[in-house]
Amino acid sequence: MNVVLITGASSGIGKEFAEIYAANKSNLLLVARSEDKLKEIASNLSSGYGIEVDIFVKDLSEENAVNELMQYINEKGYLVTDLINNAGFGDYGSIIETDWTKESNMIHVNIVTVVHLAKEIAKHMVSNNIKGKILNVGSIASYMPNPFMSVYHASKSFVLSFSLGIREDLRRKGITVTVLCPGVTASGFQERANITNASFIKGRSMPTSKEVAVYGYSQLQKGRAIALHGFRNRFLVFLMRFIPKTWVTAIAYNLSK
Ligand SMILES: NC(=O)c1ccc[n+]([C@@H]2O[C@H](COP(=O)([O-])OP(=O)(O)OC[C@H]3O[C@@H](n4cnc5c(N)ncnc54)[C@H](OP(=O)(O)O)[C@@H]3O)[C@@H](O)[C@H]2O)c1
């Protein structure tokens, strides 16, 4: 059975991707840690859209997570046509105050798992002759350092560079790779990153996760390399080409402190 694999599908942008694919009659395999949320989403989508929805409950910061997921996919005989490599999180604070365990898990989920899963799914697509699609979720953070979210921003820079690299490689095998770069988006992200009260977030109007996922999905279908959401964000990234990175970082310090 063909399935679309979505990580971080229990909330926010990933959950909205699941709804979009369900509305397009794709069967789904949803991954996250929150079993109750995944079960509820799976039941709503399968009854609402008449599709098959399976869940794989896993902490993607675990060393063996991707191997276990791939073993499950092979046991079930699933053919993954699309991968939405979305699970990720951030953390806020000075590097001498933030928690290393949380940061090392972040590096694992945002980088190691993204790479390992893209690699295994690309191999799976090639060996099953699937002309598939991979969407990795980067961020506006991919384009600039942030002194109070240094690890998160660096992890998203990695995702942007990695995605562009494998895109050029995999397009020769019939696989499309797109990197979705949302700006600040309303989701569970802010709470987990401890930034709900930060001055650059409080009272700010943000696009919904649905708007971002709809945009990401449309750009993926068009085969775009980079899907940077929002005119303001695109303009900001354009302007940053002309400003030294050290200045950008100093401005980010003042905006985020
Ligand atoms: N919201 C923003 O402002 C924003 C901006 C740019 C980029 N992004 C990126 O967008 C992606 C989605 O985030 P979101 O905004 O939708 O935030 P969210 O609502 O917090 O969703 C994050 C998803 O990732 C999953 N996840 C987190 N840690 C995990 C782990 N260790 N193992 C398995 N799943 C895990 C969560 O599921 P469980 O908690 O159930 O495990 C959840 O489903 C992330 O990569 C984020 O960096 C967000």
From TrEMBL:
<dbReference type="GO" id="GO:0016020">
    <property type="term" value="C:membrane"/>
</dbReference>
<protein>
    <submittedName>
        <fullName>SDR family oxidoreductase</fullName>
    </submittedName>
</protein>
<dbReference type="GO" id="GO:0016491">
    <property type="term" value="F:oxidoreductase activity"/>
</dbReference>
<keyword id="KW-0560">Oxidoreductase</keyword>
<dbReference type="Pfam" id="PF00106">
    <property type="entry name" value="adh_short"/>
</dbReference>
<dbReference type="InterPro" id="IPR002347">
    <property type="entry name" value="SDR_fam"/>
</dbReference>
<comment type="similarity">
    <text>Belongs to the short-chain dehydrogenases/reductases (SDR) family.</text>
</comment>
<dbReference type="InterPro" id="IPR036291">
    <property type="entry name" value="NAD(P)-bd_dom_sf"/>
</dbReference>
